[in-house]
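Exercise: predict the structure of this protein bound to S-oxymethionine.
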Amino acid sequence: SNAPDETETATFGLGCFWGPDAAAGAIDGVVRTRVGYAGGTKPDPSYDVIGDHTEVVQAAYDPDRISFRKLLEWAFSEQQPYRQPRKRQYHNIVFTETADQHEQLQAFLDDSDFDRDRLETRFEELDECYVAEDYHQKFQLRGKRWITDVFDEANYDAEDVRESPAAAKLNAHAAGHEVDVPFLEQSYDRRSK
Ligand code: MHO
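Solution:
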């Protein structure tokens, strides 16, 4: 299957990225999640030297199963669009990276009844997203040693776990989200190609 090429990515700043990483993983049609830093200008940011960047979650989704619009609805349900956290690290940002996503964002804003003058959420074109340190990826899952041990025994390295569709669902489960895994997303796993 060439499924991995069929996914698109949605990137959102929604505060501390641990929670949105798990919440995004629970969404049916989201097949991979990762956390990172985006929206700023500092080259190669890190958690300790984040500069002017913001913590973001990046969700790879199958556009045949979920629309960017649905992900926008989700992102807006996870934030307070009229209040921006004081720290830029935790800003609410909706990134778009294709013309299609940009159009879906405009349509979503046109159709919703936000008071546009009061909206604080930032809207930006995604420039670069810097992947965060391994210890921030699938943070809740990392607290479940018996699960991470299974990945270790299957010889997954940190990047394999970060990019694993199964790990994204397990991370959501570990965080207490209801997860519907109809076919374990296996065709998306680059290790099972
Ligand atoms: N330092 C805060 C937020 C972490 S989040 C990755 C905490 O420990 O909850 O910014």
